[in-house]
Amino acid sequence: MRASRAAAVLLSAVVLAGCGSGGGGTPAAGTSAGGGTTASGPVQPSPGPSSGATGAQPAPGKPSGPPAGSSAPGSPVSPGPSSAGERLLTVTRSGGIAGRTSTLLIKGDGSWTRLDGQARPAGSGKLPPERLARLRTALGQADFAHLPRVPKGGATVFDGFRYAFVHEGHEVATGQESLTPALRSALGELPPFEAD
């Protein structure tokens, strides 16, 4: 009986020695702090607060809340560019009977530049505020994020115009027969593609 008790005590000592000697104890080789096993051996506990998703506290000196530049859930997102100098819209028109190409670059403040087929400046100006507001409304209604990149529909217009729009990182290329009503409205607020 004494021999079996001594063996049990010895076995317990060996097991405890294998678990480490640091008070809280480092998990034995092949186990993680959560009791699971790992292929690489012991998992060392990390010093300081955890950054896991189980009620962890932020590190001292670190602000809590959403990261800088992000918005809290449910907060409004402002549409359009945040700076007047940023590009609001680029539209390239090509084709037609004459087969010419020209591009309009519209900035957030309504200033615009026209480029010819060789990308040379061919005019500039500024949209009046009410026209810029209508253009922004039409662009919002067009919902570029959900438009197909190449909308199709309508009867083919021979010698018709083709348009390539770029707005807020979304590109849409379509013939005049497939323009949505909102895209037609946006085109109606733009300056002429060719100088008079």
Structural class computed from helices and strand pairing: alpha+beta
Give the helix proportion (percent range).
10-25%
Mean pLDDT: 71
* Widest sheet: strand ordering: 4-3-2-1-5-6
Strand content bin: 15-25%
Total DSSP E strands: 6
Q: What Rg, in angstroms, do the CA atoms define?
A: 33 Å
Query: What gross morphology would you assign?
Result: globular
If helices are DSSP runs of H or I spanning 4 or more residues, what is the number of helices?
A: 3
| N-to-C span | 112 Å
Low-confidence parts, pLDDT < 50 over ≥5 residues? 6-82
Major sheet details: 6 strands, antiparallel
Along the chain, the helix and strand elements come as HEEEEHEEH
List the keywords.
196 residues, alpha+beta, 6-stranded antiparallel β-sheet, 3 helices, 20% strand
Question: What would you note in describing this structure?
Answer:
- It is a single chain.
- The protein has 196 residues and is an alpha+beta fold.
- Helices cover 20% and strands 20% of the residues.
- The protein is built from three helices and six strands; from the N terminus they run αββββαββα.
- The chain has a six-stranded antiparallel beta sheet, with no helix packed on it.
- The longest helix is centred in the N-terminal third of the chain and has 17 residues, at 2-18.
- The N and C termini lie far apart (112 Å).
